[in-house]
Amino acid sequence: MDLVRDGALTEMPAATERDLDRELLQRFLRGDSHAFDLLFLRHEGFVYNICLGILNNPEDARDITQDTFVKVYRSAAGFRGQSSFSTWIYRIAVNFCLDLLRRPAKRRAAEMPEDWEVPDSHAEAEEQNQRAIIQETLSRLRPDYRAALSLRYFQQLSYEEMADVLGMNVGRVKILLHRARKAFKDKYEDGEPI
Amino acid sequence: MRCRQVLSSLDELLLDRLPTERLAKLEAHLKACVPCREALEEQRRAHSLLVGAWEAREAPEGMLRAVKAQVEVSPRRASLFPLRPAYGLATACALALVALSSGHLGRQPAPAPRQGGRAPLSIATRDHVKPASGPETTGDGGHEAVKRIPSPTSSQVASIPDSSRELASGEESPRVARRPSRHVSNGRSAAARRQRHHHSAPMMLASLRGGLASAARVAAVGSQEGASTPRAAAGAKPLVLAMLPRDPLASPSDGIGQARVENTLVRCVDPVTGKVTEVSSSRTIDASNQVRSISLNFSNTAEPEGGLTQ
Description:
By secondary structure, chain A is mostly helical.
């Protein structure tokens, strides 16, 4: 059944993103595998970018994104709805990323992005260089610092959402962010050139 | 305002999200406190670098296909085991039975006993599996094993030393292991047993759910009482899980060719309360030696006859 084509999605009473996720999840659990496809399409970009932000490697990010959705597929019935569906997915993704980063032997070196382009101007080259230095500095941070900074600065999650994803209370999130920024600044200033 | 409160508010300050009243207090503190001012500058510098450090990238194509391919290899577990950890013992019991009936656990090395606290379950097995044509290779993961479980050959079963089949502390009661099979059936006739093991697929699932719930209740009683008694406190085993033999039953009406049914019985005995729970499994195996279905059936029996408890 094509939920989009047959208008089922537009007919749904779900008014919010959260309700939409919940509805899709319910449909999936009732056996509608296309609902899972829609859940995937709704969240793959965010999950991939979270993974990329933490892992700084497109290959690893792709693998972990896939693992995350496989886990979602298999564990969907266990989702109790205490947090939003997106927070639940992010938590799975972040945990997979942190697990990977704790296994140094399995990690791939940071790679140049596939869409790397030769800069047109000096200013653009400067900007690209600066971004590369920042990414390299981030890659030298502790995994939990990197996860916190990625969730805050890239995903722009609130403290409460971060607390849900990282499995800690809001106070600890604030401390983690504070220390992560301090560590980042220290490493950035005395970091070796890449 | 204290330094600690200031430091925890810096993030909101950097993002201009502080309410006016708190902002005024914070600024007053910063004027007077050099370390907090330095910390703010440090955070501000890092913040300015980090804002815009990430740019959204397109997710690579083909991920959905890859995910679908993975889940099709071993499908969703949830439909078979929608159970919470609260059913721990019952689930463990059922899984142990499934694994034992497939011959998997019997080939594992015995794990080390836990130090202190309650003793782990003790599992003893006897030969019970009807010899099959030969073992098959399965994928990894428990669910895959449930879908396609290889049966050990008779020589493999015979080659497992008795001591290695005791999976936990190795203190399984010999009286339990030596019980003759007539006690296992509790006087049921062969026809009654056949009837009991003949389930349709929905009945199997219903049986699994209902049975797990009833076993969980028995387990919960055993756990609570076991934890509060002097015996348990002194390290007595709260439960003995013993696997006893059953005769394979012919199954001519399965409609899948040369199908046969293998039955296994696990008897859980709480030595403190004396309650007994039987968990029986029935596997239907088709002509190509693939497991077509597994049913689990739980039943609470009467008080054990003398000698079952330790």
